[in-house]
Amino acid sequence: MPADLLIYGLVAAGLVFWLRNILGTRHGEERERPNPLKPAEPKKDDTPYLAPIEGSATREKESENPAPAYKVFAAPRAQEGLSQIAQTDRGFDINHFITGAKDAFAIIVEAFAQKDRQTLRDLLTPALYPVFEQALIARDHSGQALHTEIHAIRRAEIVEARLQGRNAFITVKFVADETLVLRDAQGNILEGNPDRVSEMRDIWTFTRDIKARDPRWLLAETRGDFEGDNKTLPNSV
What we know:
The protein is of the alpha+beta class. It has a single domain, classed as Nuclear Transport Factor 2, Chain: A. The chain has helices spanning 3-23, 79-88, 94-113, 117-123, 129-142, and strands at 49-50, 72-73, 145-164, 167-183, 189-192, 198-209, 218-224. Strands 3, 4, 5, 6 and 7 form a five-stranded antiparallel β-sheet that branches. The protein has a two-stranded antiparallel sheet with strand order 1-2. It is elongated and about 115 Å long. The chain starts with a helix and ends in a 13-residue tail after the last strand. Residues 33-70 have low confidence and may be disordered.
């Protein structure tokens, strides 16, 4: 063997030995090193949310944006009902619905406290309004005054949804910050504190005839999150 080839062979063997000592060898159990140029993945939220559903007006084309264009919290059992509603009512927009539900929540709570019967008639179903009216009459007879202010709606989660004939029903659980004060006829505080913000938990069911031209979702049912929890509005169930 020529002397120069022998020298090159010895140099190459030395380099291999040196690299193995410096870098080591992979044996299949090493943790993959992160790629510093790869964008960080967003943190996962364990709370279920409503992904884009067929028929939703806010649905993005997958080729343009594979991620949901909005994030509405919804229980898994509500997914099928929401999909049925969206498939039947092609104009159904879940993002628009939940925004309107939040607005209706604050308006109805404060209208009930102010005894604004006209607003309640506009936002409640004909079957639910008499329940509120009876509570208002009882307050009139007692001379009590109720003040309620919604400061913030911290959560609105869809817990149920169904399509019954041409009527859609969506149930939303609200968690809100409110100030509530109930006074007697003499102005004495019976319940609440004007300087304290407390947590309100209510479960409301909205309904709409999806074949009707009226786009409004009306409040059909109210109940507290826990038995005896609802002190702001009358329970309908």
